[in-house]
Inverse folding.
């Protein structure tokens, strides 16, 4: 049924746009309506088990602060556990709540010993890494401590398949609340500071592509596309143990 509808939409688009009758806006609205209809019928609602992709309006929202009284509730604790689980399923180094469809001021970061050792075997990131223990940030406020800029490759599980060089400040400080609702101060330099700045951007509806050096934007498998003569498919499910894992880190 879905296939028939989509085929009909494409036929409609091709036919009508050849005649110059339909504007792109009308076509996009129609496709979105169909997608939303089937998503709702399938009962797919946030928080998702998958990561939203660029173009999803939720990734451009200013995240709302969490009411501190809700932090101890079983529902919120379950949500935090889910956010951590999705981050780990994607082998990401960080994940913001908006990336699973919930525009709240929450993000998690972690670079496990396993991920650290795996990434040492690659040259993709090109920057010194370090192990970062799991940490939950609720209602975080960031202050840049050292404005010296470092530019390294960066990617995002919400922009699957691409990477670019992104300038980030060397050192930051974050004031936030932890998963038990207690305030804490977190100082970071280098790698963890980069991840946290990326996640802080998510909370403001910004993506790394807003700050990247545009000339460095690359498909992370452009050479494989040539080798395989284009016979490659993108999978938006978790990339656990994927050989491309090192490119998808925040
Ligand atoms: Zn991201």
């Amino acid at each position: 049924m879905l296939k028939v509808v989509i085929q009909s939409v494409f036929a409609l688009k091709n036919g009508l746009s050849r005649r110059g009758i339909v504007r792109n806006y009308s076509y996009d609205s129609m496709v979105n309506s169909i997608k939303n209809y089937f998503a709702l019928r399938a009962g797919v609602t946030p928080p998702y088990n998958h990561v939203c992709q660029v173009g999803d309006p939720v990734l451009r929202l200013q995240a709302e602060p969490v009411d501190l009284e809700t932090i101890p509730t079983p529902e919120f604790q379950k949500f935090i556990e889910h956010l951590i689980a999705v981050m780990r399923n994607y082998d990401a180094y960080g994940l913001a709540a908006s990336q699973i469809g919930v525009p709240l001021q929450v993000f998690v970061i972690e670079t496990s010993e396993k991920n650290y050792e795996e990434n040492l075997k690659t040259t993709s990131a090109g920057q010194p890494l370090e192990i970062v223990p799991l940490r939950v940030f609720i209602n975080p406020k960031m202050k840049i401590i050292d404005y010296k800029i470092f530019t390294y490759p960066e990617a995002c599980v919400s922009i699957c398949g691409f990477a670019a060089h992104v300038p980030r400040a060397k050192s930051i400080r974050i004031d936030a609340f932890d998963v038990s609702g207690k305030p804490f101060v977190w100082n970071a330099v280098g790698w963890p500071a980069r991840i946290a700045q990326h996640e802080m951007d998510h909370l403001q509806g910004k993506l790394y592509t807003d700050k990247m050096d545009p000339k460095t934007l690359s498909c992370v498998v452009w050479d494989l596309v040539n080798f395989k003569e284009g016979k490659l498919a993108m999978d938006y499910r978790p990339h656990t143990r994927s050989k491309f894992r090192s490119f998808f880190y925040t």
In short: The mean pLDDT is 83. The longest strand covers residues 132-155. The helical segments are 2-18, 24-41, 74-89, 113-120, 191-203, 222-227. The pocket of zinc ion is lined by residues 156, 158, 198, 202, 250 (CB under 6 Å).
